[in-house]
Amino acid sequence: MKKLLVATSLCVASISASAVITVPKYDAAAGQKIVEENCAACHGMTGTSVVPTQPNLGGQNVRYIFKQLRDFKTGYRINGIMQGQIATLNEQDLANVAGYYSEQKPWGAFAGNPATAEEAGKLFLGGDKKRGVIGCAGCHDPKGAGNAYAAFPRIGGQHAEYIGLQLKMFRAAGREDDVAKDQKRINDAAKEGEKGMMQVVAARLSDRDIKILSQFVSAVH
């Protein structure tokens, strides 16, 4: 419990260090039309993706989805497919898409890996003080529900493959690995040139940590 409180306090500090995301008033019906044309092939019409490297979006908090779409649009988060799909969309369109997906039924959960669930659960809830790893639950909620106010995503039940990929991209950025820009993710920081919480934490994770955490998170609900 003490570890979770520490992680939560650090999470609160990271919220206060960055501006709260403001989403324009959205039109979910207009968003649905855009989703049909631009998004459904990868993320599903209702936000449940059949591609494990692509995230589920149904029921995700609207601030998070909007921020990610805007970051793709500005190039702060890099993904060639995403940037191509939203190239012609304006900020209102992005808000409409975010609003539509946020109103869909939340996705479910996977089975996870029982063999490593206890070990991963300790890391998820309390982190590892010896290595300076902060528990995920402080920002993402003990049940993986996220924090809608702070635009921290719901991660419980998300595809393990997607979670693992994002952690590795945050780690590459946090460690300043010599890899291509599209293999790094820096948009957890308030602005370019800084290191956000995800980069700092992921930089201290091993490949095994990432694997068991991803499997654990996929089963949290």
TrEMBL record:
**Does Methyltransferase count among this protein's keywords?**
no
Is RNA-binding there in the keyword field?
A: no
**Per the database entry, which stretches of residues form a coiled coil?**
none
| Residues bound to heme c 1 | C39, C42, H43, M82
Query: Cellular component per GO?
Result: periplasmic space
Keywords, ordered alphabetically: Electron transport, Heme, Iron, Metal-binding, Periplasm, Signal, Transport
Q: What is this protein called?
A: Cytochrome c4
Q: Where is the signal peptide?
A: 1-19
Q: Which SUPFAM superfamilies match?
A: Cytochrome c
Q: Which InterPro entries match?
A: Cyt_c-like_dom, Cyt_c-like_dom_sf, Cytochrome_c4-like, Cytochrome_c_Oxidase_Subunit
Predominant subcellular localization, coarse grouping: periplasm
The compartments listed are: Periplasm
Q: Binding of heme c 2: at which residues?
A: C136, C139, H140, M198
Q: Which residues form the Cytochrome c domain?
A: 26-105, 115-221
